[in-house]
Amino acid sequence: MDVAELVDRARERQPRAVAKLISLVEDASPKLREIAAALTPYTGHARVIGLTGPPGVGKSTSTSVLVTALRKAGQRVGVLAIDPSSPFSGGALLGDRIRMTEHATDPGVFIRSMATRGHLGGLAWATPQAVRVLDAAGFDVVLIETVGVGQSEVDVVGLADTTVVLLAPGLGDGVQAAKAGVLEIADVFVVNKADRDGADVVARDLKQLIAYGRREVRGESWRQPIVRTVASRGEGAEELVRALDEHREWLETRGELVRRRTRRAASEVEAIAVRRLRAELADLHGGGHLNGLAERVVERALDPYAAADALLAELKPGQ
Amino acid sequence: MDVAELVDRARERQPRAVAKLISLVEDASPKLREIAAALTPYTGHARVIGLTGPPGVGKSTSTSVLVTALRKAGQRVGVLAIDPSSPFSGGALLGDRIRMTEHATDPGVFIRSMATRGHLGGLAWATPQAVRVLDAAGFDVVLIETVGVGQSEVDVVGLADTTVVLLAPGLGDGVQAAKAGVLEIADVFVVNKADRDGADVVARDLKQLIAYGRREVRGESWRQPIVRTVASRGEGAEELVRALDEHREWLETRGELVRRRTRRAASEVEAIAVRRLRAELADLHGGGHLNGLAERVVERALDPYAAADALLAELKPGQ
């Protein structure tokens, strides 16, 4: 099937075409350029929401509950579950299976786990392109879900229009350790397992953090709300959807939505450019150039900066 | 203090000079080029050992026990604890404090946690340079320890001379989920908490995995040993040291040590070159070029590949 036909079918909401396009992204298909060009005219509609939190916080359940609530509100939802590429995790796959059973029969939901292990910078490269596929396929909301460990993973989820950070009681010194990192990427906080002991402490600590580190945007601030949920019983989902809607409205009235999307597009364009440059570096003299330089570094005949100079000189011979 | 003096002091094993050099690496000091040139002649001595495993496997304790065993064998040990840059973790810092108390008074041990959050590709860039500092400072062994989640983190630890993967019973479907990923980076397996129920099952499953996925190197294979430890009681440390020594011998007799170090140097040189290219991309027209292209992508006037073309054309105007 050619790209145009595949894109047509994805826009007709055929799940297999959507899945195929995401697979082509993951496999770094040579057709990607053509795919991106074909998709671009149909993008810009979807709200992109990132969800992250420490292991054990109830991310999969929360995602599932949020999907249910968004479906009630008539929204079509695509979910990208970012596998943290751990050789140990397997979590995303398991989570998929659980969530798939609940939403499997619903044509308004598409769930996909992304595994990009072994590609440095692979997440930054593949995720926005997969978002683009779901956006063009007409999903109203794209949820990017990832466990909040790993620098690439957190970076990617922080590029959403709205980023939700989940915490829960009983996960060690989660909030104390959270510090500035969470404040930077969180637009909405969720305290899940809110029926458990310690939930009040988590919420109170969060409030202090927020008061301390309030983000300033053009002189006006978004005060991150704290939503309490018990995802396992579906409690708090409506409040979460409301908080997301309020943030969306704030984004739009402040011009911040365009700014965030520009930042995301910049990250995507940069990742595509860097990937191409890396391929060129690797290809110099059929890969022999980098290897030869590395051998000289191991022999201590060159330091790594001098070797990088030599590599770059070869990449840009005219300069 | 100038770089030459700092390097001299580090080579005289003054911990503050070593710490200062690693801080300069982490902060991407403009002096890095000079530092790398000054360090390079003194490198190549240290054995670089990577340690990883899922959360809860007992990595910090195992590292501490391994440090003790290596010290008994007369080795000076530097430890780089890679913080997985999670805004939630805080684990590395806590771990440091615990380990520091045990080894604080020992001048033959240097422990440092690396946090490089917020820099895409930061780990691949900073870690080999920090290893270089410890190597030049005369440490016989450099241990790189990281939790086995996050693509960048696993990539980095997989670039050691020898990579140890820890597993333990009671961590869910750890081994089943491990699959090929672990086999690719593990040279030595440790089943920690070997006194607990389920340790035999973990070891048996590992044996099957190894039999199934044995790594072939030039027609001869290294069969990954499985060492059982109870790190909390210091049990199995000698066996682990022996397994590490055997792997080291295998590396040397097969010429594999030079191959691995060349691969690591290539990764370092590439990371330095890519970082420089990224800085150049970001600097084009004072950052305005990338931003302007991103705006056009958001407006759907350009697809991201066409935008990347335009960015690269500006980077290499002669071509």
TrEMBL record, chains A, B:
Pfam families hit by this protein: MeaB
Annotated keywords: Chaperone, GTP-binding, Hydrolase, Kinase, Nucleotide-binding, Transferase
Annotated InterPro entries: GTPase/Isobutyryl-CoA_mutase, GTPase_ArgK, P-loop_NTPase
Keyword GTP-binding included in the entry's annotation: yes
Entry GO MF terms: GTP binding; GTPase activity; kinase activity
CDD domains named in the record: MMAA-like
Family the entry assigns: Belongs to the SIMIBI class G3E GTPase family. ArgK/MeaB subfamily.
UniProt protein name: LAO/AO transport system kinase
Lineage of the organism: Bacteria, Bacillati, Actinomycetota, Actinomycetes, Pseudonocardiales
